[in-house]
Amino acid sequence: MSPSCKFMQCLQFAARKHANQRRKDIKQTPYINHPINVSTILSTEAYINDEVVLMAALLHDSVEDTDTTFEEIEEQFGSEICDIVREVTDDKSLAKEERKRLQIENAANCSTKAKLIKLADKLDNLRDLQISLPVGWQEERRNEYFRWAKKVIDNLRGTNQHLEDRLDEIFIAVLN
Ligand SMILES: Nc1nc2c(ncn2[C@@H]2O[C@H](COP(=O)(O)OP(=O)(O)O)[C@@H](OP(=O)(O)OP(=O)(O)O)[C@H]2O)c(=O)[nH]1
Ligand SMILES: [Mn+2]
């Protein structure tokens, strides 16, 4: 199976939008590696072949973290993908504590497609955290992220056993 023309355009769009952004690690990894990882995890580890999900994964942080608007996404990639991106986008106008609380509270009410992206997003972030501490973070902040992520994941269960198993392996290794 080869990726569709639409999928490749989506990859280009996400790469352009995240072009000047870096991850928080010491190596300043290009940010686009993370949306690519999330889409790849869904394809290779969760066995998802629905391109709507794989494309929404590429776009999942574009509105939250770049100048991308939902209107742009809807115009370029359609309303179904746009609605999924909307579901996985935090409202940055809210205080961080409130955003984190809402992720836990709203997780169970998401669509299955949005839940898949949330599972893969957390899995990639937790893997990064296992490898290294983001610049400026102390050990306690990493532990707090692990504890919070488990609360979000606990409200997403029953969505994809492959991803939930990978996440549980991490929680067993890092939480007591
Ligand atoms: N582990 C890790 N995370 C990094 C790194 N660079 C950037 N991030 C991003 O940081 C976010 C987690 O950090 P927080 O302090 O909790 O959130 P904040 O950036 O919104 O303030 C994640 O956002 P997110 O994808 O929107 O997910 P989430 O906020 O739903 O967890 C993650 O993608 C890195 O090097 N390692
Ligand atoms: Mn993300």
Automatic annotation (TrEMBL):
InterPro entries from the UniProt entry: HD/PDEase_dom (IPR003607), HD_domain (IPR006674), MESH1 (IPR052194)
SMART domains in the cross-refs: HDc
Boundaries of every HD domain copy: 31-126
Matches recorded under SUPFAM superfamilies: HD-domain/PDEase-like
Coiled coil: none
PANTHER family, alphabetized: GUANOSINE-3',5'-BIS(DIPHOSPHATE) 3'-PYROPHOSPHOHYDROLASE MESH1
Similarity comment: family membership: Belongs to the MESH1 family.
Protein known as: Guanosine-3',5'-bis(diphosphate) 3'-pyrophosphohydrolase MESH1
Source organism (scientific name): Glossina brevipalpis
